[in-house]
Amino acid sequence: MTRLNELRLISRVAQMYHIEGRRQAEIAQHLRLSQATVSRMLKRAEAEDIVRTSVIPPVGTYSDLEKELRDKFDLPEAIVVECSEDRDGAIMARIGEAAAHLLEVTLSPGEIIGVSSWSQTIFKMVEAIHPQRSAQAKFIVQTLGGMGDPSVQTHATQLTTRLARITGAEPKLLPVQGLASSREAKLLMMADPFVRETFDLFASITLAIVGVGAVEPSELLARSGNIFSSRELADLAEAGAVGDISLRFFDKQGKAVKTPLDERVIGLSLDELSHIDRVIALAGGQKKTVAIAGALRARVIDTLVTDKFTAARLIEL
What we know:
Oligomer: single chain
Order of helices and strands: HHHHEHEHEHEHHEEHHEEHEHEH
Structural class: alpha/beta
Strand order of the largest sheet: 1-10-9-5-2-3-4
Mean pLDDT: 89
CATH class of the largest domain: Alpha Beta
Number of strands: 10
CATH architecture of the largest domain: 3-Layer(aba) Sandwich
CATH topology of the largest domain: Rossmann fold
Distance between the termini: 55 Å
C-alpha cells in the first residue's frame, strides 16, 4: 500500500496546484511539506499520468489539418485558416489576414525581407498589416522585376514600398521587367547599378514572403499583358511544370523545370530561395492545389499559410 499512499498524496498536491490554483509555497505550508518536495511531486504527477495536458483548439482553427500537412510534406509549420467559401477572392483575403498577424508577431528588428511582389494574396497581407513600432525591418527587397503593361506594373512598386513604410524599412526595388525579351537583354538590364544593388541583397535576405502560381498566368499577370506566349506555356507543360514561385517553375515532385524562359527571368532563383532562413508561402485555391503540392515538395518553404479547402485537397492528393 506504500505506493498507493504515495500516489494519493501526489494526486492531492496536483489537485491543489492545478485545480484549486494554489501556489507551491502555499501547498507546502498546508501539507507540512518542503517546497522542493511539492515541486518533485508535481513532476511525478505528470510522469505517473495523474496530470494530463489537453489542448482544445478553438472553433475556426484546424490543428488536425495543420498536423497532417506538416506530416505529409515534412513541412516545419502550416497555418490553415477559416474561410466561408471556396472562392479565390475570399481565400486570398483570409490568408492575407492570417499572414499579416504572423508577420506582426514574428518580425525581428533589422530583418531583410524579400517579397514576391506579383502576388495578389501578398498584397492582401500588406493591406491587413498594422504599422510596426517596435520591431522594424531594415530592407524590403523586391525579388522579381516588374513586367507587362506599365499601368499594372505599379502594383509591384506599391506592394514593396507600402510594406516598407509599414515595417519602417527602406524599399529596394527592381526597376526592370521580370521577364526580359532575351537572355542578352537580361544581362544588359542587370548591368544597371540600381538593379545590381538590389540583386546583391538577395544573399542577405532573412525572411522571404512568396506566392505560389499555377502554370497558367494569374489574373494579375494576364492583365499585365500576359507575359507568356502559347509556345512558352506549351514548353512548360511538356517539361512537366505544374507551378512557379516568382516565375521559377517546378514539376509535381518539386524539381526545378529549366526552359529557355528561365534564362530570361530577372529575380530570385529557387536555389537562392532554399538558402534563406525563413520562407513563408501564401497560397490557396482549387486551381493552385497541384502547384502548392509541388512547391512543398521542393523543400524551400518553411511555413505555408493556406485555407481549409485547399488544405483538405492537399492531404487527399
